Amino acid sequence: MSNALSWSRSLGDAVQSAEKNVLTVFSGRPDGSTGIAWSGDLVVTAAHALDRSEAIELEVEGARRAVTLLGSDPASDLAVLRVEGSALPVPNRADVAALRVGEIVLALSRPARGLRARLGIVSRLGGPFRLPGGQEVDRYVASDIQPAPGHSGSVLVDASGALVGLNNAGISRGALVALPPSAVAKVVDAIVEHGRVRRARVGVGLERVELPRGVSEKRKQERALLVTSVIEGSPAERGGLLLGDVILGAAGRSTARVDDLMSALGEGAIGVPLAVEVLRAGEERTLELLPEAR
Question: Which among 155, 285, 149, 260 has a CA at the least distance from the CA of 208?
């Protein structure tokens, strides 16, 4: 019984250690949503929980404070808020690389009715992983904590209360997946600098197709991307890409899936020449495109 009580109290200590970083965000929803004090005067919350038509407020130490929305990123479902004149506590960050399947984690949220905690274990570790908008995440953490209303944007902590990541219920159906601090930091930095996460584009519509046997055997690649549309005035049109071309590779990597092309179109690809290998009328050739910001 004493061991069980000690374990129970250690979990309570973990929650108490982390709860100062877990805040309530009010934006048109009576129950509010969860935000995490990220650094100094910045708070990160779930983008989908914000009502852009309403003034956004943050509850800090029992008092509501007006905040400024710096920007949001639908792909990661993250938004960044600034609290003027505040020095928010910075969360301790867990060593996510050392985390193992089976370790205990807690999901913390703070709707208007107060702090909530749910207990679970790490059910899966994975990576690299690509978000819908193309951003590559080195590692992600899935827990067996069942998604529930308000859990997107909640905080996942380890048994010491250190930050494992921000939970997202939309990445994997039926599972709560946490984006680690390293991935969140990239989104935050981009929003602070540009007001959004900039990504590159070439301006094409694509469909996955099987390659002819000869090409497949030569390239050791079964599938590629058929160009089904080319936007007028886009980098693809300027670079000579045509309707019906099959994109075999980009930046020296095969493109068997759309995600493979997206991996070459991060923020760093904007304005940088991109070598694209295509199959046109049975002939392989290389085109040079100059991706632009979306």
Answer: 260
Contact by Cβ (8 Å): 34, 47: no
* Upper half-sphere CA count for residue 191 (Cβ side, 13 Å): 26
What sign results for the dihedral spanned by CA atoms 128, 130, 135, 137? negative
Rg (CA), the chain: 22
Name the helix (H) or strand (E) containing 51. none
Dihedral sign for Cα 32, 37, 43, 44, please.
negative
Helix (H) or strand (E) holding 50: none
| Matching residue, tokens 């805040």 | 23
Q: What is the DSSP letter of 134?
A: S
pLDDT 10s per residue in the chain (294 long)? 578 888 899 999 999 999 999 999 998 777 788 999 998 899 999 888 887 767 898 888 778 888 999 999 888 889 999 998 778 888 999 999 999 999 999 999 998 878 999 999 999 998 777 776 667 778 889 999 987 766 667 899 999 999 999 998 767 676 788 999 999 999 999 999 999 888 889 999 999 999 999 999 999 999 999 999 999 999 999 999 999 999 999 999 999 998 889 888 887 889 999 999 999 999 999 999 999 988
Domains and CATH numbers, the chain: 2-82 (2.40.10.10), 96-184 (2.40.10.10), 200-293 (2.30.42.10)
Burial class (CB in 10 A: 0-12, 13-18, 19+), 175: middle
Contact, 188 vs 38, CB < 8 A? yes
The dihedral of CA 221, 226, 232, 237: what is its sign? Answer: positive
Q: Please state, in angstroms and rounded to a whole number, the distance separating the CA atoms of residues 142 and 161.
A: 17
Q: What is d(CA 253, CA 39) in angstroms, rounded to the nearest whole number?
A: 37
Q: What is the pTM of this model?
A: 0.80
